[in-house]
Specification:
This protein has helices spanning 2-15, 21-30, 32-58, 60-65, 77-85, 89-117, 122-142, 147-166, 182-196, 215-234, 240-250, 257-282, 288-294, 301-323, 334-368, 370-374, 383-393. It is mainly α. The longest helix is centred in the C-terminal third of the chain and has 35 residues, at 334-368. It is globular.
């Protein structure tokens, strides 16, 4: 029962922009006094984890068709929505679902290995995160066509990220703490700012002629994405948004959009599985769902991994079925659709994070308009996440 309920809730949270599985976990945890006597701790924990896994599959739908990311799909929104505007939205969703399915196959055994092998090396990992990120972003800025603008955009978005997390207590948020403010932060940088400058014509007719990727590319992108998801899921202070930025330096969302979509989707799902391993191995909570699980009588890790695999299989089928409705979007007026999406997301943002979240959304949207104005890749807006993580790694307090 827990798996079925979790899949249903994860499907809802995945489809609705701005709603995350962390939010659902907070609601379920607040109702645990009423739910535990009825369904028991195993079913409640299974519901939370199944919802998280399902969300990692289904959230590709609003990313693709509406151009709105959540905290886990920041950069992926750009190539996915671009494919949608070319009439290939169903293909983009199916590629994302394939990436998540491949990640499930690879990430589960990797998570078991990490559980047994990595805890002894954790102090070394904790120390080296910042250096790795500095090296990655330094390479990306130096090799940019406009290093000055790239550095400026990375820096100003980083300042916004520091401001957001430092004053996160001013926002309303459910479980997961200030991480809920990732929603207005990343939605402004990568969602609303894109919709403001998007084409105002009608949505093109959606067609599906198969997935235009060869087997070698699928395998390579799946492995890269899964490894990135495992890395950021195990290491402290990192998130899928960080993985998106790192993957962009390897694959690039402009060079090979389909490979990037697959890799980031794989990273998203792998992160969820490795987060469970980190909870049991290190007693560290990597996301709001893990925080909620830690507050419950925890069932065996093996049982939750089985739940995750079952949820992933169901979520893959659901995502593919939902993607077949893409043809119904053809002919919709883009201006009205974009306006409706922006209004909905702003309302959700204010509801979940309050006036402070709305202020962050405004600032993020203004910064998110800069890449379009100066013709610089939006990738460098990931400074909003990377800079706070670097400072955290170097032990700089106050963020």
């Amino acid at each position: 029962m827990g798996v079925l309920l979790g899949v249903a809730l994860g499907t809802v949270s995945g489809i609705l922009p701005g709603i995350h599985a962390n939010t659902l976990a907070g609601v379920l945890l607040s109702l645990q006094v009423a739910l535990l006597p009825v369904i028991g701790p195993l079913a409640l924990a299974a519901t939370m984890f199944a919802a998280l896994i399902t969300h990692t599959f289904v959230d590709s739908i609003p990313t693709t068709f509406l151009g709105i990311p959540d905290a886990d799909t920041a950069l992926a929104v750009l190539p996915a929505h671009a494919l949608c505007l070319e009439g290939n939205g169903e293909e983009a969703v199916r590629i994302a679902a394939l990436g998540s399915a491949c990640a499930m196959i690879i990430a589960v055994p990797l998570s078991v290995l990490c559980y047994f092998l990595l805890p002894a090396l954790q102090p070394l990992f904790d120390w080296g995160i910042g250096l790795i990120l500095v090296a990655v972003i330094g390479y990306m800025i130096v090799t940019s066509e406009a290093p000055g603008w790239a550095l400026a955009l990375f820096g100003i978005s980083g300042i916004l990220g520091i401001f957001t997390f430092h004053y996160g207590f001013l926002g309303w948020h459910s479980i997961g703490g200030g991480s809920a403010l990732l929603m207005p932060l990343l939605t402004g940088l990568f969602g609303i700012s894109v919709l403001f400058v998007a084409s105002q014509g009608t949505m093109p007719v959606q067609k599906f002629n198969g997935i235009s990727m060869d087997g070698r590319s699928v395998v390579r992108s799946s492995v890269l994405g899964t490894l990135a998801g495992v890395a950021v899921g195990w290491l402290p202070g990192l998130s899928n948004a960080t993985a998106n930025g790192v993957l962009a330096s390897v694959i690039g969302y402009e060079k090979d959009r389909r490979a990037y979509i697959l890799a980031t989707s794989a990273s998203n799902t792998a992160n969820a599985f490795i987060g469970l391993a980190a909870l049991f191995a290190l007693s560290r909570m990597r996301n709001g769902v893990m925080v909620a699980l830690s507050a419950l009588p925890l069932p065996p890790a093996s049982a939750l991994f089985v739940v995750g695999v079952a949820a992933a299989c169901a979520a893959y089928v659901i995502t593919v079925i939902l993607s077949r409705s893409a043809h119904r979007l053809g002919g919709i007026e883009g201006r009205w659709l974009n306006s409706a999406v922006i209004a909905f997301v702003v309302a959700i943002c204010l509801l979940l994070t309050g006036p402070f979240g709305g202020f962050v959304l405004l600032l993020a949207t203004l910064i998110g308009l800069v890449p379009h104005m100066v013709n610089v890749p939006r990738l460098y807006c990931m400074g909003a996440v990377m800079v706070p993580v670097m400072l955290y790694s170097f032990g700089i307090a106050g963020i």
